[in-house]
């Protein structure tokens, strides 16, 4: 049984909550009592239909204002797959929520209101989906009933979207378009006889047939060490296991591994998963590795396969999305957390801020909430990262404000250097 | 629907939960696992056992005993603690009542469910806990759907939905200020069915009240209430014997039973798949208002 993680994004009133409600409803994922509760609520509000959006609009403030404030997680299953939806709100000021919701997504669903077509928000949603290197984007053109199920309207939206998307989509990124009507369920889980001109898959068919292989196993093997297991009992007197979740690649018994930063090498003696021993372990698995030699390894270190070592980077260039009200400024020092490694990082330069709607570059001395920019950062200690484009699970980091301890930014690594490059970056 | 009953547990969820539990042990000085005796916290114990094997679980368990628990739950708790050599700390709501910190509710709907928040916050302070691992899941309830995996609470244990830290990738930021603590939810992404499938595949033991058994009950508001000395009944409420089981296990005064003959895990899973009532629909405490859970969370509830 595998898991598919989705992100949904749309502007206010595009009907995103209704679309999710419809997916749940048509896959029989809503228990009777919840359905009755929202039916009663809908009636109290004077609606003559069951407002499926009430399923996900959870917080008091949201119900009062009829909007979605924070990322909500919604679950449903089919016989083949478990789905986790991160439902991100569409407001401009909540860009950080979409980035949060999309950071683990394998599929991004972008909603467009057929009456309004592609709007500024749509560009932003696609830009973020691309920045986060989400391999598949499904564009749902919603409320087709309100444009008489017109194929022309749909085709125009497709070409408008493409005109923008082609400029930034990455190689291998899949974009598909589906005309839907969430309120009545057309092309969500069932097809639509009101749009015979559409011959593609329904949304659910698209999800069910999405290929999940992100080829993580083919990437260089990396395991950040989370915890050193030392039972100190008579039975396991000299036991020393390195516990962690493999971020990419495959580790096998007999593999020679390098510990970073010490660069000492050893051989994998045993791969343990609770009481069983494995011959090999794959990305995303939580395991405990035992080595033939006693070498110096502690939390925050990384085990990699010998010959596949990343560079010890003390200077990085990254896309950063700023998530705090308190602005980021040049020269300020933050905690940078990469995997489970924490290092001090100094903002060396803001190369430019990107306007997601137009892709225009602007110079800046500060980053405000929801800004996305290219920064260079100087690190107090080396990190062992890959670029985000080559290895999504080892190329991201967060920034933590040392004053408040809050998570204030997220970064996607573009370039890695062992030291400050000789040629300074010109703005 | 019954094709789903053959569904396997998605193993990725176990890897994710173990990763989270290991992060807690590594990032915090004094964590604890909040144990309720329910299936979700029993699942957490199993995950913690796996995370550190062959070492023992490197933190204590904390049970807030309301005094209104099912006796079967308490028996199960003590047996589990013995078997796994767990360090089980128990704090009692009765003590908080005796100290005058909380007042027993009165009337026919009286329950100690809300009172236990005070006992919990006191225990967190007394044991100087900086992280508490809980078994809440996002599919249970609308307010929980928005909670983070590392959920920062202030000195009063309060949850502020609008001030939540963004959580990105699988990176968990456990840095906190003095006086703050973190609630951690490793099985956030599991559904009720995932938990049951896991219990089935792993052969995990659970308290007997989850299986069909004969018990004294009363009917109230269209629900089946377990009869006990703690339940305040009115003269027209007649005690009957019925074969029932519990789908969720909280206090005897606020957990409704379902009529059932499911006496093994397969039977329970079949029943959940065909059930028309959601899990928390059997939690009388949630029915108090549409936003009952959100309000309790703001006050420091589990």
Automatic annotation (TrEMBL), chain A:
Pfam families: GTP-eEF1A_C, GTP_EFTU
SUPFAM superfamilies: EF-Tu/eEF-1alpha/eIF2-gamma C-terminal domain, P-loop containing nucleoside triphosphate hydrolases, Translation proteins
Key words of the record: ATP-binding, GTP-binding, Nucleotide-binding, Nucleotidyltransferase, Transferase
Species for this entry: Xanthocytophaga flava
Domain Tr-type G: 1-216
Lineage, opening ranks: Bacteria, Pseudomonadati, Bacteroidota, Cytophagia, Cytophagales
Protein name: sulfate adenylyltransferase
Gene Ontology molecular function: any one: sulfate adenylyltransferase (ATP) activity
Cytoplasm among keywords: no
BP-aspect Gene Ontology terms: sulfur compound metabolic process
TrEMBL record, chain B:
InterPro entries registered for this protein in UniProt: PAPS_reduct_dom, Rossmann-like_a/b/a_fold, SO4_adenylTrfase_ssu, Sulfate_adenylyltrnsfr_sub2
UniProt EC number: 2.7.7.4
The keyword Transferase is assigned to this record: yes
SUPFAM superfamilies: Adenine nucleotide alpha hydrolases-like
Keywords carried by this UniProt record: ATP-binding, Nucleotide-binding, Nucleotidyltransferase, Transferase
GO BP of this protein: sulfate assimilation
Superkingdom of source: Bacteria
Pfam families named in the record: PAPS_reduct (PF01507)
Domain named Phosphoadenosine phosphosulphate reductase: residues: 31-256
Family the UniProt entry places it in: Belongs to the PAPS reductase family. CysD subfamily.
Protein's name according to its UniProt entry: Sulfate adenylyltransferase subunit 2
Organism the protein comes from: Xanthocytophaga flava
